[in-house]
């Protein structure tokens, strides 16, 4: 690969909001994209990344969990209702979490490593012709979503 090829890949990765909601993505490819994320630089090799993959009807379940957390927080009803079906807009949702470290610094560095890993993942998706969009978890829904993913307490 030349540097120009590399730069073209980086530049061509742009947020894509319009997606084919039902076009299947090969689960092996999803796994490989998560593997690419895990090759990111990681201080002290803490392996902080956690992945939750949602396809089909499980995307709706994810939306319900986030929406219920928002409802509990008192968010506006229209926002809550929109969230229930939000994750059906893409065929695959990968929820990425970061494990807490042994110190505040390690927790921060874990998150840095996970963010670098997500960029690897997004670049890999672009290379494979897939659209992608990095989005935050809805405010206040983090713990519920993390629990739904089966992660240890403290994973954010
Ligand atoms: C950590 C992180 C969280 C983000 N969360 C959201 C979000 O919740 N909603 C949103 O519209 N954009 C969000 N963005 C921004 C988009 O993913 C995107 O990066 C931005 O719009 C720039 O577009 P580009 O990816 O084409 O460069 C987030 C970006 C990052 C890095």
Task: Report on the architecture of this protein.
With 156 residues, this protein is mainly alpha-helical. It contains six helices and two strands, in the order H-H-E-H-H-E-H-H. It has one domain (25-148): NADH Oxidase (3-Layer(aba) Sandwich), CATH 3.40.109. The protein is globular, with a radius of gyration of 16 Å. Flavin mononucleotide binds at residues 14-15, 133-136.
What can be said about this structure in brief?
The protein contains 6 helices and 2 strands. The protein is mainly α. The chain is globular and about 50 Å long.
Secondary-structure blueprint of this entry?
Blueprint: H1 3-12, H2 27-37, E1 49-55, H3 58-73, H4 77-86, E2 92-98, H5 104-127, H6 142-148
Antiparallel strand pairs: 1-2
Helix pairs in contact: 2-5, 3-4, 3-6
The structure holds flavin mononucleotide.
Residues 14-15, 133-136 line the site of flavin mononucleotide.
Unreliable spans are none
- Superfamily (CATH H level) name: NADH Oxidase
Mean pLDDT: 97
Number of strands: 2
Which CATH class is shown?
A: Alpha Beta
Physical arrangement of strands within the biggest beta sheet: 1-2
Classify the fold: give the CATH topology: NADH Oxidase
